[in-house]
């Protein structure tokens, strides 16, 4: 078994966000990988109106999934569920999807289909550059309130401006319709309200709730490890 972690919007360095759970998995002999998402400026080309979007993110994750035929669980966090819906489709090694405070889009749906009118208050959208990002001053209270101070302090260094075009680009496949899927509701999430998560989760085959904020793989790594090992 291996785990592939697909990070959410407006961040970079997925391996940093994932590291606490990855370390616990390694102790059990389970390797993991965290693909870079080009739309977050991780592939050398800057994000922006003419920068990488959802298709490039999908291609990047598919390359990692195809690089190994080991039975794989994909952990999709937040925006990562949009990427994973298409990236994991038709890949035989993918045996389970774990959606964490995320989305299960139908074919033709985009991230914007799951939002409310206008950008969330914790986002900064720059129409001129064609990018959006998390407002640093709201990062901890919204997303990291249950994390240790060390992670709260360091997280700001792993934020990224992302191509805003990803919010409107539709997915071309829905892997969750083909692969067993578990949804992890983060009951203390300040970014995606738990009630909305529960609505999104109705498309999943199994729903689990955890008393955690938006990043349970940082704040509750042992619980996430145990959930993964049970799949």
Number of helices: 8
- The global form is globular
| Gap from first CA to last CA | 10 Å
**Structural class determined from secondary elements:** alpha/beta
The fraction of residues in strands falls at: 15-25%
In order across it, which strands form the biggest sheet? 2-1-3-4-8-9
Largest beta-sheet details: 6 strands, parallel
Q: What order do the SSEs take from the amino end to the carboxyl end, as H and E?
A: EHEHEHEEEHHEEHEHH
Percent helix among the residues?
Answer: 25-40%
Average pLDDT? 97
Radius of gyration: 16 Å
Task: Produce the secondary structure layout.
Layout: E1 2-6, H1 14-27, E2 32-33, H2 54-66, E3 72-77, H3 80-87, E4 94-100, E5 123-126, E6 131-134, H4 139-143, H5 149-155, E7 162-163, E8 181-186, H6 194-201, E9 206-210, H7 216-219, H8 221-230
Question: How would you describe this structure to a colleague?
Answer:
This protein is α/β, with parallel strands linked by helices. The chain is built from eight helices and nine strands. The strands form two sheets. A six-stranded parallel sheet has the order 2-1-3-4-8-9, sandwiched between helices. The chain has a three-stranded antiparallel sheet with strand order 5-6-7, with no helix packed on it. Helix 1 links the parallel strand 1 (2-6) and strand 2. The radius of gyration is 16 Å and the shape is globular. The N and C termini lie close together (10 Å). The model has no long low-confidence stretch (mean pLDDT 97).
